[in-house]
Specification:
This protein has a 7-stranded mixed beta sheet, with helices on both faces. β1, α1 and β2 form a beta-alpha-beta unit. The protein has a single domain, classed as Alpha-Beta Complex (Spore Coat Polysaccharide Biosynthesis Protein SpsA, Chain A), CATH 3.90.550.10. With 221 residues, it is of the alpha/beta class. α5 runs parallel beside α8. The chain contains 8 helices and 7 strands. The termini are far apart.
Length: 221
């Protein structure tokens, strides 16, 4: 896989100066095509990423995860990517799982990571929110996923053109699924370990309410 110039790993990052070098180091063992998008970080994220010798794109101000991931994916397409893997920068995703995603992507359009939502490693409020959004996603878009909010994903370049989102925040993960459902893309899930280093980092209750309202809007449109 290291020699395959068609596979690109995109890592959106915001204030991950303490962890970004470890993420990059582990991803480098799998692929040399790495894009880190520094989303207006106020810490050393950009400087550390640049010192790693990979491609670093920067937003002057914080625009949100959805905007950062789209910036990285758009650039990967320009560079000729045929397969794209989206990976978080906070060590909650294990880069060593990337080959499993690519194996599952063979013959499919998109692959979603699936955490163990029953694990006591995930805060109870997040388990409840994720399960609720999962049910709404199935009702509205026919996508039967066990974990709609996991950001660890892989997709083909052709699929990206169909799922490309407008949301700039965490809603992009649900908008991606909504678009995949409307386009009837072929998908699969890959089970991954549940890792929570920052107990309440990520989608909040307010984010969850916004996501559900957005999904209803996407369905109506």
């Amino acid at each position: 896989m290291e020699q395959n110039e068609n596979i690109w790993i995109v890592i959106p990052a915001y204030n991950e100066g303490e962890k970004i070098s470890k993420v990059i180091e582990r991803v480098k063992k799998i692929s040399s095509n790495i894009i880190v998008v520094d989303d207006g970080s106020k810490d050393s994220t950009r400087k550390i990423a640049e010192s790693s010798g990979i491609i670093v794109l920067s937003h002057i101000v914080n625009l949100g995860k959805g905007a950062a991931l789209k910036t990285g994916c758009d650039y990967a397409i320009i560079k000729g990517a045929k397969l794209i893997v989206a990976l978080d920068a906070d060590l909650q995703h294990k880069p060593e799982d990337i080959p499993r995603f690519l194996d599952a992507l063979n013959g499919r359009d998109i692959v979603f990571g699936c955490r163990q939502l029953t694990s006591d490693k995930m805060p109870a409020i997040l388990r409840f929110g994720n399960n609720f959004i999962n049910k709404i996603t199935h009702i509205l878009f026919g996508m039967n996923l066990k974990d709609t909010q996991c950001g660890f994903r892989a997709f083909t370049s052709e699929a990206y053109k169909k799922i490309r989102w407008n949301a700039t925040d965490y809603s992009m993960e649900s908008e991606m699924i909504a678009n995949a459902g409307k386009q009837k893309l072929n998908y699969a899930e890959v089970a991954i370990e549940t890792v929570y280093l920052d107990r309440y980092k990520g989608t909040t209750v307010l984010d969850g309410v916004k996501i559900v309202m957005n999904m209803i809007s996407w369905r109506i449109r």
